[in-house]
Structure formats: structure tokens, C-alpha cells
């Protein structure tokens, strides 16, 4: 299983090779901000099974959420909370919300291509992100 952190690192490594430096910095900033959000808010949406796994690995092995779970755990609910609440809380305006939506859409396209998420997860997440791209 590829963890969220591993997927983000692989994604950024590939993007760095193909993007202009200033565009890559936007990608990196969004991914780092999203990781930060996930670490702070992940427990809000845990299933009982996920909660148990998280507490065992976090408490005994000092692993973070993104080091435990796969990209399949990135849900529309979390993406919406990230874009609507967290990005705004950290002082991001409409431009950052739009940039974050575009970067996450690219990430999910990449994750589908690499077989890290299934088609259904891709479609649901992409549908949500398209709405943000239209708004911003």
C-alpha cells in the first residue's frame, strides 16, 4: 500500500520535472497545506476501524495520519472542508482556493493513472473539484 505521504512525494517529484519553478511552488504549497489540514482534521471523519488503526500506529509507532492511510482515504467531505474552511482560515483568498482545487484535481488524475485510487473515488472527488474550478 502506498501512503498519502508517499503518493504526495511521488506526485511532487514528477511535477517538479515538468513544471516551471513558480508553478511547481504553487503545487508544493497546496500539497503541504493539505497535509497539514489532514493531520489536524482527520479524526473528525474516522470510521471505528480507522480510529483504532490510527491510535495504535500513532501512539505506538509515532506515525502521522498521512503515513498510515492511503489516498483512498481522501474524501469529498475532507476536500470540501479543506477548500471552504481551512484555506480561508490560513488567509488564503479566492485565488488560493482556485489554485488548490486545480492542484488537487491534478493529483487525483495522477493517482488514478498510477492505480492509487479507484475510478469511483476519482469521479466523486473530481466532480467536487470541478465545481470549485468553475467558481474561482
Specify Rg, calculated over alpha carbons: 15 Å
Determine the mean pLDDT: 92
Query: How helical, in percent, are the residues?
Result: over 70%
How much of the sequence is in beta strands? Answer: under 5%
Query: Could you say how many structural domains there are in total?
Result: 1
Principal-axes shape call: globular
Distance between the termini: 34 Å
Describe this structure in words.
The chain is mainly alpha-helical and 136 residues long. It has one domain (4-135). It has seven helices and no strands. α5 (76-89) packs antiparallel against α6. It starts with a helix and ends with a helix. The model has no long low-confidence stretch (mean pLDDT 92). This is Core-binding (CB) domain-containing protein. It comes from Methanosarcina thermophila.
Give a short synopsis of this structure.
This protein has seven helices and no strands.
Keywords:
mainly alpha
Topology:
Blueprint: H1 4-18, H2 21-41, H3 48-61, H4 65-68, H5 76-89, H6 94-113, H7 119-135
Amino acid at each position: 500500500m502506498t501512503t498519502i505521504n508517499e503518493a504526495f512525494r511521488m506526485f511532487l517529484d514528477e511535477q517538479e520535472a515538468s513544471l516551471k519553478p513558480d508553478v511547481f511552488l504553487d503545487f508544493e504549497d497546496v500539497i503541504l497545506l493539505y497535509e497539514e489540514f489532514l493531520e489536524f482534521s482527520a479524526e473528525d471523519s474516522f470510521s471505528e476501524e480507522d480510529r483504532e488503526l490510527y491510535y495504535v500506529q500513532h501512539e505506538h509507532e509515532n506515525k502521522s495520519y498521512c503515513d498510515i492511510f492511503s489516498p483512498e482515504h481522501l474524501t469529498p467531505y475532507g476536500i470540501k472542508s479543506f477548500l471552504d474552511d481551512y484555506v480561508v482560515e490560513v488567509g488564503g483568498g479566492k485565488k488560493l482556493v482556485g489554485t488548490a482545487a486545480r492542484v488537487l484535481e491534478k493529483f487525483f488524475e495522477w493517482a488514478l493513472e498510477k492505480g492509487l485510487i479507484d475510478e469511483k473515488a476519482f469521479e466523486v472527488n473530481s466532480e467536487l473539484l470541478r465545481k470549485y474550478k468553475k467558481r474561482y
